[in-house]
Amino acid sequence: MTEDEVLGSSALANAFRVLRKHGLWRQVPLSLALVLAGFIEGLGITTLLPILRVIDNPNPGKLGQPEQIVFSVLDFLHLPHTLGALVLIFSLCMMVRAAISQQTSRFVGRIVAEIASELRNEVLDRLLQARWSYFTVNPVGRFVSAVSIEAVWGAYVYRTSLTVLAALIRAIIYCAIGLLIDWRAAVIAIVLGIGLGLINRFFTRAGRRAGRNQQLAMRGLLSDFGDVITGFKPLKAMSRHETLIKGLSKETKAIRRSMYDLVFYQQLANALPDLLINLVMVAAAYVCFKILGLDLSAMLVSGVIVLRLMANVSTVQRAIQETASSESFYWSLQATINEAREAAEIFTGKSAPALNDACRFDRVTFSYGAKPVLKDVSLEIPAGRITTLIGESGSGKTTIADLLLGLFVVDSGRITLDGVPLDEIDLLRWRSMVGYVPQEVLLFNGTIYDNIALGDPAISEPDVNRALEDAGALGFVKALPEGIHAPVGEHGAMLSGGQRQRIALARALVHRPALLILDEATSALDPETEAEICQTVQRQAGKLTVLAITHQPAWVTIADRVYRVIEGSVETTDGTAITPTLAWAKP
Ligand SMILES: Nc1ncnc2c1ncn2[C@@H]1O[C@H](COP(=O)(O)OP(=O)(O)OP(=O)(O)O)[C@@H](O)[C@H]1O
Predict the structure, then answer these.
(1) pLDDT over 80 (residue 135)
(2) Pocket around ligand 1 at a 6 A CB cut-off
(3) Which atom of ligand 1 is found nearest the CA of 399?
(4) How many CB atoms sit inside 10 A of residue 470's CB?
(5) Residue ranges per domain, the chain?
(6) Which stretches make up the ABC transmembrane type-1 domain (predicted)?
(7) How many A from CA of 430 to the centre of ligand 1?
(8) Superfamily assignment of 358-572 in CATH?
(9) pLDDT at 141 over 90
(10) What topology is assigned to 16-342 in CATH?
(11) What does the pLDDT look like over 277-302, one tens digit per residue?
(12) How many angstroms separate the alpha carbon of residue 34 from the centre of ligand 1?
C-alpha cells in the first residue's frame, strides 16, 4: 500500500497495521497481562456488590450470579462471608491489578524504546545501502526528518497503537463483566461508546489532516533551512539571506496552523467524552432509580462498571485520535524506508579488484536522462601513472570518475580493471582501494584527526601525520595550538579553502589507496603548494594510480597521459578523436 492509501484508511485499522508491522507476537505478553488485570479488576469491582449488600443488610437474602462468584472465591480461600473478608478481597484485587499495571508500563516503555531504535536503525541502514543517484534527487531534509522527528514520532505512534489495543481489551472485559452484573447498564455504556466512536470520526479525520500538514511542513522546513544554512556565507555577504529566511515563514506558518488544529481537535476529543459520560450517567441514574426501581447498591456497582467501561472507551478514542494525528510521520518514515530499499545498490560482482595494468573505458555511452553525457568513449588509465582529464565545464569529466567507481552504471560499452569488467568486480572492495577528493570539499564538524581517520580504529596518529605530510598540510596543522586535534568548525569553516582541500587530500591518502581521484582537488591552492603536492604524488609513481580532473596546468605538466573531454567525447590533446580506439597524448 502506498503512503496515501494507508492514510486514506481508518485510523483504527492503521493502529493494528502498525502493531502487525512490528510483530504481533511482541504484544502477546502485554495482551495476556491486560486480560489478567482486567479480570482481577473486574473481580474487585464485583466484590463491591456484596460489600454494599452486607453494609446495607447483614442478611442479604437471595444472591445474584456475580455475588455467588465472589462468595465462591471466599469459600475457595476459606474466608468467612463477612464484610472484612470482602474488603480484603477487594483491596487485594486492586493491589494485584496495580502491580500488573506497573509491570505492563515497564514493558510498554521497553518495547517503545526498542521500536524507536529499530525504526532509526532501519532507515539509516537502508539509506546507507541506497545508490548515489537516490541522494542526488532527494532533499537532505527528508533524510534528516526521517532519522530524527519521524523516528521519534513513529515510536510514539506505536505507543498510541498499543494504547488502542490495551484499552480495547479492557473495554471488552468490562463489557463482559457489565453484561454479567447488569446488562442494562452495560447496554447503555456500549451504545454510548458507539455514539462516541461515531462523533470521534470527525475529530480523527480533522486531526489526521492537521498531522499530515504538520509533517509535510516540518520536512519542508528542515530541507529549506538546511540548504540556507549550508550556503549561508555568500547569502549573508550579499545581505540576501533575509529574503530567503523570510521564505521559510511559509513553512513556520503552516506548522503553527497545523499545531493549532492538532491541539484543538485533541482537546475537543478529550473534553467531549467527559461531557457525554456525565450527562448520560445522570440520565441513566434517574431511569434506573426512578423508573426501573433498581436498588441503590446494584445501581452503585453498575455505575462503577459503566464509568470504568466508558473510561476505557474514551481512552480508545483518545488513542485513535492521537494515532491519527501523528501517524503521518510513521507512514512517511516507512515510505522513505521502502523507497531507499528499492533504490538499494545491487552488487553482483564477486571478483577481487586488482589494479596492476590499467582501468579501461571501452566505447562507453552514458546519460543521466534523455541526453547522453558520454558518447562512445574509450580511454585508458594506466596503473602507477598519472592520467589527467581536462575539458570544458559540464563536458562529463566527473561523470567518468563516477562511472569508474560504479556510482552510476554505463548504458553501453564496458569498463574494466586489469581486463575484468567492473560488473564482475566486488565494488565495495574496489571503492575501499580508492582515495577520492571531490570538487566541493565538505569537512565534518570535528577535529582534523576525526576528519582524516573518519572513525576507523585501524588509522593511527602516525598514519594521519604521514597523510598530512603527503597532502602538504603538516606545516600549517603543526602551527595550530591543538595540532591535529584542532577543531575545523562547521563544514570546516575555521580553515581556509586551501587548508580544507589539503585535509581532504590527506583523508584520501591516509588509507594508502591504489587509485587516487582528484576532482579539482588543488584549485584553491597557491602554485607553490600545488607544485609540492604534485611532487609528492609523482614520488609515489609506480605504487599509486592517479586520475586528476583539473583545469590547472600543473597536473597537465606532470601527467603521463592527458585526455580532453569535449561534449561527451574524449580526444587526445593533439585533437585526434580517440573513440572508439584507445589513444593518449602529452600536450
Ligand atoms: N546527477 C546528475 N543528474 C543529472 N545530470 C547530471 C548529474 N551530474 C551531472 N549531470 C550533468 O552531466 C553533465 C556532465 O557533468 P560533469 O559533472 O560530469 O561535468 P564536468 O566536466 O565534471 O564539469 P565541471 O568541470 O564543471 O565539474 C552536465 O551537463 C551536468 O549537468
Answers:
(1) yes
(2) 136, 368, 373, 391, 393-399, 439
(3) 18
(4) 23
(5) 16-342, 358-572
(6) 32-325
(7) 23
(8) P-loop containing nucleotide triphosphate hydrolases (3.40.50.300)
(9) no
(10) ABC transporter transmembrane region fold (1.20.1560)
(11) 777 667 767 776 677 666 666 667 67
(12) 60
